[in-house]
Amino acid sequence: MKEISNIKISVVIPSYNRAHTITKTIQSALSQTYPVSEIIVVDDGSSDNTEQVVKAIDDDRIRYFRLDKNRGASGARNHGVAQARYEMIAFLDSDDTWRPDKLEKQITYLDSHKQCRIVYCALVRHYPSWDQIIPDMESGRKLEGDMMSDLLYDNTVSTPTIVMQKDLFDEIGGFDESLRRLQDWDLAIKCYKLGFIGFVPEVLVDAPLLDDALTSNMDAYFESRCKMMQKYRQDYLTTGTFNIAVTNILELAQKFNMLESVQTMLLQCISS
After folding, report:
1. Cβ count near 201 (within 10 Å)
2. Torsion angle, CA of 19/23/26/30, rounded to 10 degrees?
3. Which residues contact 160 (CB under 8 A, 6 or more apart)?
4. Is 228 helix (H, G, I), strand (E, B) or coil?
5. pLDDT digits (tens, 9 = 90+) for 146-198
6. How many C-alpha atoms does 104 have within 13 Å on its Cβ side?
């Protein structure tokens, strides 16, 4: 590893009933070529043996916290960041893994882009019969710098790809716990408003799609998508992407046979 800044990283891992996957997740953080300083596991009220599994891993960098009641992934992440001791935060989900040089490449990027306070990378989502790379690096969309119009159109910044300064996280108020989905998208937009977002154009995160993953909950997705339209209505109008976004939402709703309910939800959000 080449010589780069001695930045200390706190890794935040929220977990809910992921005893069967979390060991592999934690090991992917412990095995980074750029060493992490601490791993904060926030158990979001699991009913399985997550605590025993985490505490069986022999590494004093691991800190375990259990929430008394389930707060959702965003609440667990916010709690984890509040416990963090170091200047840089990286997020990792308890069913995902990092490739060994993820942090090294992102810290190297930050080291050469002093104006940057947050950097992300690409992720590959593994479906049962195919893989999807997020973001699509061949789409021609802007993935860093002056990217507001593209960022409003679709989310490109997945939570386990993010490395960011803790003071930036605190400045934007952390994850919005009122959103059941798309909290990473909301966080990215809030960060963009405060400065440059950097991007390492490589797949450095693996994310299997589990049967019980929130990704399958389309009700929560459309509810959050409509709230995002309400929250950033002026930004959509300013960038000329409002009608494009509405069309995209309704086309997707039709695909999932939810057009009528989503139309009602969307109208309530954008007219209030």
Report:
1. 10
2. 160
3. 91, 92, 93, 96, 98, 123, 205, 207
4. helix
5. 999 999 988 899 999 999 999 999 999 999 999 999 999 999 999 999 999 99
6. 12
pLDDT greater than 60 at residue 2 = no
Do strands 118-126 and 131-134 pair parallel, antiparallel, or not at all (unpaired)? Answer: antiparallel
Instruction: Quote the Cα angle for 27-31-32, to 5°.
Output: 125
Place of tokens 């965003």: 74
Confidence tier at 210 by pLDDT (50, 70, 90)? low
Cβ pair 125, 132 in contact under 8 A: yes
Give the pair of three-digit tokens for residue 12: 């935040």
| Selection from 8, 67, 16 nearest residue 39 by Cα | 8
Give per-residue pLDDT as tens, 86-103.
999 999 999 999 999 999
Q: How far is CA 85 from CA 38, 62, 81, 107, in A?
A: 8, 12, 9, 18
- Tokens representing residue 117 in the block: 């306070």
**For residues 174 and 176, what is the distance between their CA atoms, to the nearest angstrom?**
7
